[in-house]
Amino acid sequence: MPYTSRAAETLTLTHRAVLSASALAVTLTGWMWLTRGSAHQLHSSLLLPHCDPVPALGTFVSAVVMWQAMTIAMMTPTTLNWLFAFAALTGRSEPRRVFRAVGAFAMGYFLVWLGYSIVGATAQLALQRAGFLDRGGQLPSSVAGLVLIGAGVVYFTPLSRNCLRHCRNPLTYFLGHWDNRPRGGFRFGAVHGAYCVGCCWALMLTGFAMGAMNLVWMGFLTILVTVEKLAPRGDRIAAAASAGLVVWGAALLL
């Protein structure tokens, strides 16, 4: 844990159990969808004939759903500390609306990631139509190397580091911006989602370098993102991993 949250410690055992079980169920659902549906989608609905100038609506929706399932599977575990802290602070003033407020938080959070999923799906379909992705959804090694280098470098930018600092300290943010109004939970979720996108968007794009539906790579990124946000020295681990991406990308270029 990167911080000590007295507020989170006041959360009841029931609330903790329900929130943990819900997060686990959402995460597993995302991974099950990716595991069972990835091969079919990748080799049928998402691989477009190069002669198609514009993807069909169903194809685009399928791509967006794939990206959203990926973000749900990868990002849900990283939000649990935020949900604990938010539920504890909400429960102090309005214990009966804890779960409703947490639901609004989750809705705001994943709505922001839905916007990112639309951008990611659009980029994937455009790359496929242009012939840059192979049948595994992977870029040529030279381009993949540039993507890995770019993702590694982005981590060291001030914007990315500030976003990670926000993600590692939920209680600090809540205490400075607390809002008891019904829309407060949604707003908190949306703001946190925006910071998470700022922290992780480049890492998510490395899927193009390793394969759009490479589940092993997704699992690695899930562990990396969870560690960098929750572990005591997660920022240092993330920095080492980012440096490794730069070295790996340079090796691909060479």
What is the structure about, briefly put?
This protein has twelve helices and no strands. The protein has helices at 6-9, 13-45, 57-75, 80-93, 98-129, 141-155, 158-167, 170-177, 184-205, 207-210, 215-230, 234-253.
Description:
- The chain is mainly alpha-helical.
- The protein has one domain.
- It contains 12 helices and no strands.
- It has helices at 6-9, 13-45, 57-75, 80-93, 98-129, 141-155, 158-167, 170-177, 184-205, 207-210, 215-230, 234-253.
- Helix 5 packs parallel to helix 9 (184-205).
- The longest helix is centred in the N-terminal third of the chain and has 33 residues, at 13-45.
- The model is unreliable at 1-9 and 42-51 (pLDDT under 50).
What are the main properties of this structure?
single chain, 254 residues, mainly alpha, disordered N terminus
Layout of strands and helices, then pairs:
Blueprint: H1 6-9, H2 13-45, H3 57-75, H4 80-93, H5 98-129, H6 141-155, H7 158-167, H8 170-177, H9 184-205, H10 207-210, H11 215-230, H12 234-253
Tally of DSSP β-strands: 0
State the major sheet: none
Strand % is: under 5%
- Secondary-structure element order, as H and E? HHHHHHHHHHHH
State the end-to-end distance: 39 Å
The assigned structural class equals mainly alpha
Overall, the morphology is globular
**Tally of separate helices:** 12
